[in-house]
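Researcher: Go.
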Amino acid sequence: MRISLFCLLFIAVALLADGVLSVAAAQESVESGKGPVLGDEVTTKLKLGVTIKATGNMFNGIANIPIPSEWPEQKVKIFQEDVTSNVKRVTERDISGGGGLKQMVVEIPQLAGGQEAHAIVIYEITRRKMQPPADTSIYRIPKKLDRTMQLNLGPSPMIESRHPKIVAAAKKAVVDAGTAWDQVDAIANYVRTNVQFKEGKLKGAAKALLDGDGYTDELVSLFVAMCRSQKIPARTVFVKGDCHAEFYLEDDDSQGHWFPCVLTGGMPLGTLDEVRPALQKGDNFRNPENTKESLRYVREFFQAAARGGSPKVEFISEPVAN
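Model: Structure:
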């Protein structure tokens, strides 16, 4: 079907007016019709930050707090800031090389006993639902990936993509699948069929497969591990108190797209009704101030030198009524 230039520009302007897409993105979306189909949007506010109260003299305090990043389906902007004058600097940094995680970094040079400092930011986050593309047959497993994307192919904490049982299960799942999309769908169905949903402590993908049960994290981890064992990039997406998976395929123009996969509730592949903010995407990070070990999920962190007692630290992460 041909679309006139006038219609194309009309759609682009309409999308711009809603703050949804740039002109280039609107044009690409209309012309190609590839990638996830973005649906209804919900805007929420999230308050993130830290409060530090010194009990003795404190020096060289630094706090870092994970903050939401922007994605095609998620837009983020600062709505309000509240920073005390004794905070030297509040900055943002990407600790994943563009792979899915930003931090707010708060620097406090010194506090005398009894003094308090805080840095609190309210973010306005617009999240859109997603639907699968109309034609899934055009997608294929990518052959070349940059270094950042390579993290979505190897093992991660609790995601043992090279475990013999996981590799064997993935090969069994995709044996009769045709397209790349069909292969991913077969892996998702294998996880749902062979791992019973059961609440419990985090135990990882391999243990869930061996036990035949696991909580949401385990189902997601096993799906991600099985995809990776078949050279299909996949990762974990964390929202408040929950998670789901994403997988990455290229279209027939060699353009890559991330698609959602929800392992519970019988949702079709590529469909996501989640509108809570995506807090982190990925499952293999290193926090520069915290540890050199790989982290599945990066939490808040604070460090400082102190004399006369350790400071009291309270991290803030809570929704704000619109």
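Model: Residues 235 and 312 are 35 Å apart (CA to CA).
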